[in-house]
Specification:
about 140 residues
Length: about 140
């Protein structure tokens, strides 16, 4: 089976978008979900695991819980800052990649389609920024 140039470009774009979205979701879920983002039933899972795995007695349980509570804000701050650094790095990489991708797409699109693509990119950038502020 042989594909024409437009079909090949369309397939490459689709695969690229799918791979990027999948990778981004996987990284976000693996590394950047803060405790505050966890559903209510998941908050305190680390504490409960420690309590069980370490066999904490009542006095230890109270102290360990207090220690974890004391460190939680700093952990959340570090996670938030890491997210910002990675977002900035990803933004730079995406700008470069999208410029290359758009140059290739412009070779096969009509001028009005190129203009619409630019508009779509701007809309997606705004949405990405909006999504970040709601994390």
């Amino acid at each position: 089976m042989s594909f024409g140039p437009r079909t090949t470009v369309a397939l490459l774009v689709a695969v690229n978008l799918l791979a990027g979205a999948t990778g981004g979701v996987a990284i976000d879920r693996a590394f950047f979900r803060s405790d505050t983002a966890a559903p209510a039933h998941q908050k305190g899972r680390f504490f409960e695991m420690l309590k069980k795995e370490l066999g904490l007695d009542e006095q230890q349980t109270e102290k360990v819980h207090a220690i974890l509570d004391a460190y939680r804000p700093e952990c959340q701050r570090i996670i938030a800052e890491s997210r910002k650094r990675i977002d900035a790095q990803a933004d730079a990489e995406l700008v470069r990649l999208h410029a290359e991708e758009d140059a290739e797409l412009a070779k096969v699109l009509r001028p009005e389609q190129v203009a619409r693509l630019a508009e779509i990119r701007r809309e997606r950038d705004k949405q990405r920024e909006k999504d970040r502020t709601h994390r």
